[in-house]
TrEMBL record:
It comes from the Eukaryota. This is MICOS complex subunit. It comes from Tachysurus vachellii. It is found in: Mitochondrion inner membrane; Mitochondrion membrane. Component of the MICOS complex, a large protein complex of the mitochondrial inner membrane that plays crucial roles in the maintenance of crista junctions, inner membrane architecture, and formation of contact sites to the outer membrane. Component of the mitochondrial contact site and cristae organizing system (MICOS) complex.
Length: 202
């Protein structure tokens, strides 16, 4: 009987304590940032450049001295590289062509070569003849077998020769007209001087 009252009394006291208005309610919740344990003080950092050593100064001087040469070399490389690539590609194409030539290639090459040798034989005695005869005979032989290529080369060569001739004519004309214009100006100045001298004397 006393056990029952003890258990009932204990539960009654617990209920009374839970329902009593005096129990303290927890205060507002605190975030982790507000706890001093989790806050870090703000630190202000500023970058300080290290002092240059002699090695670094020497390297800077060398880089500044070599920079124009490096720039020049890069420019030359940019100009020369495409030409070298074209030459290499031409060599590859030529070797492929010579490995698998068409049937008529070797006879045509023989005729053109024979024309060159004949030109050397006919051009004995003079260096100009030795230069002109073989070149002309080889060009004629090549144009017989490759007429389209010969027409293209002739057109481009003719245009180049015409342009060169035109530029030479313009240059000579400037030189001649420049001298004649100067001479005319000198004559006019002399006549004006004579006329002014004649007027002053009168």
């Amino acid at each position: 009987m006393s056990k029952q009252f003890g258990a009932a009394g204990f539960s009654a006291t617990l209920a009374a304590m839970a329902s009593s208005p005096d129990t303290e309610k927890p205060k507002e919740e605190i975030s982790l940032d507000e706890l001093s344990l989790y806050t870090t003080p703000q630190q202000k950092f500023h970058y300080v450049e290290p002092e240059k050593g002699t090695m670094e100064e020497n390297m800077t001087t060398v880089r500044e001295m070599t920079e124009p040469y490096i720039t020049w070399c890069q420019g030359v490389y940019g100009v020369v590289k495409p030409k070298v690539d074209r030459t290499v590609q031409f060599g590859k194409d030529s070797s492929e062509y010579l490995r698998n030539p068409p049937k008529e290639f070797y006879p045509r090459a023989g005729v053109i070569g024979f024309a060159g040798i004949l030109g050397l034989f006919l051009g004995r005695g003079s260096r100009m003849k030795r230069l002109i005869y073989p070149t002309t005979l080889m060009a004629v032989g090549a144009s017989m077998y490759y007429p389209q290529e010969a027409v293209t080369i002739a057109k481009s060569t003719g245009d180049a020769v015409y342009e060169f001739t035109l530029q030479a004519y313009v240059t000579v004309e400037k030189l001649v007209t420049g001298k004649s214009a100067v001479k005319q100006e000198d004559k006019m100045m002399k006549t004006e001087m004579k006329s002014s001298n004649g007027e002053t004397k009168q």
